[in-house]
Specification:
By secondary structure, the protein is mostly helical. It contains seven helices and two strands. The mean pLDDT is 85.
Length: 132
């Protein structure tokens, strides 16, 4: 594909849609449920890398902020940000960006050494989950 910006926009939109669908897969544990979005936000950071990896999460957060039901349990709006789980929402973005920056783009040598690549991506996912 000649136009890489079109490809990047497509990946951002695809990951944002996948993150939004992840709100319906949840394990209710008290006030703060465990949702698939936690993993998907960090995964978008690792797979897309750096700030581009945070873009799908930012798009998902903005969609929920304007009222679309994309947060845990199909909720959305400013009330979610002001509720007990509101503090986790900025952490999604920070976790995705941190994981993307740590994972980075593997060099040709690192692609050949798959063990180092697995270790590097695992550390990036762990760092992203710690921030969440």
């Amino acid at each position: 594909m000649k136009n890489k910006s079109t490809l990047k926009i497509s990946f951002v939109a695809l990951f944002a849609a996948i993150i939004c669908v992840g709100c319906f897969i949840r394990i209710p544990l008290g006030v703060i449920p465990i949702v698939l979005q936690n993993v998907l936000c960090v995964l978008s950071g690792v797979l897309l890398g750096g700030l581009l990896g945070g873009a799908p999460t930012a798009l998902f957060l903005v969609a929920g902020l304007i009222g679309l039901p994309v947060y845990s349990g199909g909720t959305g709006g400013l009330a979610v940000w002001l509720g007990p789980t509101g503090g986790f929402l900025p952490g999604y973005f920070l976790g995705a960006v941190t994981a993307g920056l740590i994972a980075g783009k593997p060099s040709v040598e690192q692609r050949k050494c798959s063990v180092m690549l697995v270790v590097r991506v695992s550390l990036a996912i762990l760092a992203g989950m710690v921030i969440l």
